[in-house]
Design a protein that fits this description.
alpha/beta, 7-stranded mixed beta sheet, 5-stranded parallel beta sheet
């Protein structure tokens, strides 16, 4: 059986690992390849956080369910992330408004509640690196085929799926896994352009700064533990949102993180730009333009950690540097990254082929463009990859044939829809609500938002965690489904 995965991001790598781990023992003839439109990961003197940032993103919060999914793929990959991310303290979230008032503090995704799989703040590049290592473990010498841009896929019935490339080349495979992101060519082919990606009217900006460069009061608040610990700070104002936290262990430098602790910061604000790609400023002038924009939005916001100037102003001043400047600065002091936010406004009718053949599967943002406001985008993509591979492996084991039948493909695809669409739909609803809270608000809107934050912070941790089902275990979910179907 020939499987082609389109997209070598976190979802694509996870699908490759999961298919080889779960399906290959039942199908020795399995062949899985990954093609990726990008030519390669770039290189930078500022290190992997900078070099990979425009391709694999900036920082992220990996929820307990996502960390558990990675552990099911590779315990070594999960350990790699936990050793290099901010785990102890990331479940504690401090909410403030732009006047510096604390709206509340709550715990979510505490590792003690989920068997050691807690919330972890980490650079996306570290997650990517962990999966690349697992890819090599399961890859039998396979390599990502960089610079191969898929432009269309066409179902050929029992013959398989024809894949068409930008250079005019074509090939036929048995199964296509579309993990090619929010502007997925596989999705566009599957549904004839019915579900285009659109800007949601918000822009993200962010980056990484060595903690050693920060003002002393802010540095102390980041590194403190116990009752003074703030964990992840999220601040809401009239014209946007600003968040920051560690993305490395407090104990850095250590064997895994030799460069000392790193702060990750991210801001979200409304924009009229509707056609924009991720970018880092190359020149000082470009970086200064971004800095002035952010200072105009956040420069006067207040914080208990303020010294001579606002914490937010300090972070923006340090963080808004260009590529040419970052290459001369401390290791892991990265250029500011602008990230436009795209969504697919209409929910897909299916994560697989309308024909129900099951020969094309969508996962991650290609299936459900998850706004970052849920903190579940990466986790849902990981769950998708594990759940689908488990279903395919279980149905194949039931048949016990040397090849995968049409029946196995159809059943696996139908079960994948049954298990993933309701769960992801619920999380998308939460993400939409959270995203709206970061848009411009009048006086009444801000008052109501602040009140809502205060109420949420008083809710029991178990109630808040249940919204995302942080205890989601793909293996148990699949077993329970198959036992009743």
């Amino acid at each position: 059986m020939k499987v082609l995965i389109v997209g070598a991001g976190i979802g694509g790598l996870s699908a490759y690992i999961s298919l080889n781990k779960h399906l290959q023992p039942h199908l020795p003839s399995l062949s899985v390849r990954i093609v990726e439109a990008h030519e390669t990961l770039s290189d930078s003197k500022a290190g992997p956080l900078a070099s990979a940032s425009t391709i694999v993103g900036s920082g992220l919060g990996l929820a307990p369910n996502g960390l558990r999914a990675i552990h099911s793929l590779s315990p070594q990959a999960a350990k790699y992330i936990m050793d290099r991310g901010f785990l102890d303290g990331a479940s504690r979230m401090t909410f403030r408004n732009s006047s510096g008032q604390k709206l509340g503090v709550f715990s979510a995704g505490n590792k003690d509640r989920y068997g050691g799989f807690g919330m972890v703040m980490v650079s996306r590049a570290v997650v990517f690196e962990s999966l690349l290592q697992a890819f090599e473990q399961y890859g039998k010498g396979d390599k990502v085929e960089w610079g191969r841009k898929v432009v269309a896929v066409v179902e050929l019935g029992a013959e398989g799926v024809q894949v068409e490339y930008a250079d005019g080349a074509k090939e036929v495979v048995d199964l296509v896994v579309g993990a090619d992101g929010v502007r997925s060519r596989v999705r566009d082919s599957l549904f004839k352009g019915k579900y285009p990606a659109e800007s949601d009217g918000l822009m993200g900006a962010g980056g990484f700064i060595p903690v050693s460069l920060l003002p002393q009061t802010l540095k102390d608040s980041l590194l403190s533990e116990g009752k003074d610990e703030e964990g992840v700070v999220m601040t809401f104002g009239a014209k946007g949102f600003f968040g920051y936290s560690l993305c490395t262990p407090r104990s850095a430098p250590n064997e895994q993180v030799p460069h000392g602790p790193i702060l990750q910061w991210w801001a979200i604000y409304e924009t009229s730009q509707t056609s924009f790609t991720s970018s880092r400023p190359k020149t000082i002038t470009e970086a200064n333009d971004i800095k002035e924009k952010l200072l105009g939005l956040y420069g006067t916001w207040k914080s208990p950690a303020d010294e001579k100037e606002s914490v937010y102003r300090s972070i923006i001043e340090l963080g808004c540097v260009s590529e040419e400047v970052a290459d001369t600065l401390a290791y892991h002091h990265t250029p500011v990254l602008l990230l436009p936010r795209y969504v697919v406004p209409r929910r897909l009718e299916s994560y697989t082929t309308p024909s129900k053949s099951g020969r094309i599967i969508l996962l991650g943002d290609a299936a459900h463009a998850m706004p970052p406001d849920s903190g579940q985008g990466v986790s849902c993509a990981l769950e998708d990859a594990v759940v689908y591979a488990l279903l395919l492996a279980k149905y194949q084991a039931r048949e016990g044939q040397e090849t995968v039948s049409e029946n196995v493909l159809r059943k696996s695809a139908a079960a994948y829809n049954d298990l993933r669409m309701p769960r992801v739909g619920k999380i998308l609803d939460i993400a939409k609500y959270n995203g709206d809270s970061k848009k411009e608000k009048g006086v009444i809107g801000r008052w109501f938002r602040d009140l809502t934050m205060r109420v949420v912070c008083f809710m029991p941790e178990s109630f808040r965690d249940s919204a995302f089902d942080f205890g989601y275990e793909p293996e148990k979910v699949v077993e329970n489904y198959l036992s009743s179907n």
